[in-house]
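Sequence, please.
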């Protein structure tokens, strides 16, 4: 296990290094001068050059990258060009909203996908299977920005049940926190649930066709006993893999949904950084997203050994 963790840790660091190089290069290829955006339309050449020197933009790109990378290793992701605040502080401000939306959306996805996927597989070829499969196709096909707008029109503007946008912390107002969370969580969670449903159904169907399942039925075990004791334990690994991918995607922030619902998450922060050409904020945000995705994948790999005793990390 130790050797495996060391090897995966090295691979993760190399992946993060590659991400940092690609992101830094692509960001500096984007048209637009962050100094001009920060100063506005009226500025003098002296102020412009002084701000470029203060931001470090007058140095060669290689020097800028190595300096930023050395600071990032120490936990310093730089200072925002636009606001002058540390990037780490901006990320920490947005993390609670991002974690809240990711956890709520994943809960919605699991509640919808897992029971329906198991039921559709157990009743393969029936009306229930057909309806659930068609519903999942619709859920995957409909863009989340369209469904989010429809939810706002129906539940906020027409029925007046829920607020259309915004964010309230749980400590300030628990009910306000929940009411603001429902619509964006359902918008993201139903799409993720539609994707997850297909994997749950396929994994359960594949496990049900194994010889040990037929043997269990031949021994006289009930369908419930076979499903819980034989089918599900062997279907969890592909399901957990997809859940891990979905969680990494959600923790990275869902840009479109966050913009529609004015949700102050990391996705919206990254969009604002692109609009303002705020290089340091965008670099720090993308590096965090990559680190989060790699960490979730590592945890999923380690979870395999708990789900399947046959898995060993030598």
């Amino acid at each position: 296990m130790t050797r495996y963790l060391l090897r995966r840790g090295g691979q993760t660091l190399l992946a993060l290094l590659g991400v940092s190089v690609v992101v830094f290069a692509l960001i500096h290829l984007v048209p637009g001068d962050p100094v001009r955006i920060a100063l506005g339309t009226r500025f003098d050449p002296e102020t412009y050059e002084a701000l470029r020197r203060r931001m470090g933009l007058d140095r060669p790109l290689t020097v800028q990258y190595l300096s930023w990378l050395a600071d990032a290793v120490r936990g310093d992701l730089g200072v925002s060009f636009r606001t002058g605040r540390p990037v780490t502080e901006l990320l920490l401000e947005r993390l609670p909203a991002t974690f809240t939306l990711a956890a709520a959306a994943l809960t919605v996805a699991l509640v919808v996908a897992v029971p329906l996927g198991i039921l559709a597989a157990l009743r393969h070829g029936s009306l229930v299977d057909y309806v659930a499969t068609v519903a999942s196709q619709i859920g995957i096909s409909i863009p989340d920005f369209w469904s989010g707008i429809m939810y706002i029109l129906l539940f906020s503007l027409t029925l007046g049940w829920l607020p259309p946008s915004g964010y309230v912390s749980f400590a300030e107002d628990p009910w306000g926190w929940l009411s603001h969370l429902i619509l964006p969580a359902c918008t993201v969670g139903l799409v993720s649930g539609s994707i997850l449903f297909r994997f749950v159904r396929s994994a359960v169907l594949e496990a049900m066709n194994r010889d040990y399942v037929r043997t269990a039925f031949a021994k006289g075990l009930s369908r419930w006993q076979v499903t819980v004791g034989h089918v599900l334990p062997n279907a969890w690994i592909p399901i957990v893999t997809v859940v891990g991918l979905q969680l990494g995607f959600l923790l990275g922030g869902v840009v479109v949904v966050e913009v529609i619902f004015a949700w102050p998450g990391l996705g919206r922060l990254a969009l604002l950084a692109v609009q303002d050409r705020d290089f340091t904020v965008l670099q720090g945000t993308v590096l965090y997203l990559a680190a989060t995705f790699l960490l979730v994948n590592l945890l999923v790999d380690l979870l395999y050994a708990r789900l399947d005793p046959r898995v060993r990390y030598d």
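The CA atoms of residues 30 and 277 lie 8 Å apart.
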